[in-house]
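S2.1 Query sequence (DEAD/DEAH box helicase)
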Amino acid sequence: MLANSSIQSMQTDFETLNLINPICQALHEEKYILPTPIQEQAIPYLVKGRDLLGCAQTGTGKTAAFALPILQWLEQNREAVSPKGVRSLILAPTRELAVQIGESFRVYGRHLRIKQAVIYGGVRPALQIRALSRGVDVLVATPGRLLDLLNQRQLRLDKVGVLVLDEADRMLDMGFLPDIKKICSAIPSNRQTMLFSATLPSEIVKLSRNFLSDPVKVTVNPPSSTVDKIEQKVLFVDRENKSDLLEFILEEDESIQRALVFTRTKHGANRIAKRLSKVKISTEAIHGNKSQSARLQALEKFRSGRVRVLVATDIASRGLDVDGITHVINYELPKEAESYVHRIGRTARAGTDGIALSLCDAGEKSYLRKIELEIRSSLNIDQNHPFHAQSIASKKTGVRKSGSKNFSDGRGRGSRNKSTTRAEGKNKNFSFSRNRSPGKPVNGKKNIRNKRAS
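Output structure tokens follow.
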């Protein structure tokens, strides 16, 4: 039986969550003041040793929700780690997410004597094996590499006291279920287990029944909901004009300071990145065929602002957590409606607004319809661009026209810019931003008030 924790969130601070002083000190140094809803709901149960099923997307603070209780458990139950031993294990679907989780443990546990390691595929295992040889308190791993090293007897899991399955739905999508089952069979059954998933399909519910014992269920932002502060638009365009439209969007509005562009294929991501780079739009691509070092380098450039555009596939972007993404652009619509929700959730973080633009060709109208059913809302059509395809827009899909409104028009909140008339060629007054004058950059300053732990 799942204990449902859909409690009314009240503003509190981390000290009220019964966290020890060294952890609270690290959070204070990072200027984290208020816990997010999932942290506020999950941490009190986890510090008591309960199993947990968490439904939360990237950006809700779920990493801290499990990292802080694990660090506290390790400190309060300190014991020597045996050679090749592991005390707590976190499984993640991608290398990028594993690295991010490892960094979070390092930051939150800076005042604790914690040994940790992060292991993943795509690199030589020698350094990872060396890190594991003396044993670790925290191990963050992707399933494939972990199972390889386990089969080589380079680590032991018989002393694991806490197990976390992060982004379990994506691990299932990527075919990791057999690996996860083998890994779990090597871990003691009297452990604490946490399972986090952005969605709760029947496969995840079944998995939770097998791996969790009397878990509490915490749900934040149900999977079918979209962030209210994201303005969503659809642009109808012929397939052969998509590249020109994307280039037009990025050239015409300087307020698009940091854009995440989604494609369905690795080849498409490379092609778009190469084209944009040729017209002096700083761009990097990230996908499964890239080496680990190349992917991490691209992410660092995007985070630091040295690269304005990051082109990504769905799997490669999962777990990508970058602040300040002003726009998400769906160059190609996803076939699965839930992936649309994951994609656009990369913007409008930490109380900021965000804009999601979807370029839809004739072959993607059915995907658009599924998306609208999933989010229970029709996307506004914006036809004020040089590549509008009226023949595609006129097909019956259930979307509504936004009339003469342009990208600066939202859903009736605050003042709006007047629409611009489409001129021959490129319209220099064209703006894809919300509540901003055309060409005016976004304020790049971070708002650190009430900063929340990720």
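The longest strand covers residues 230-236. The chain has a mean pLDDT of 83.
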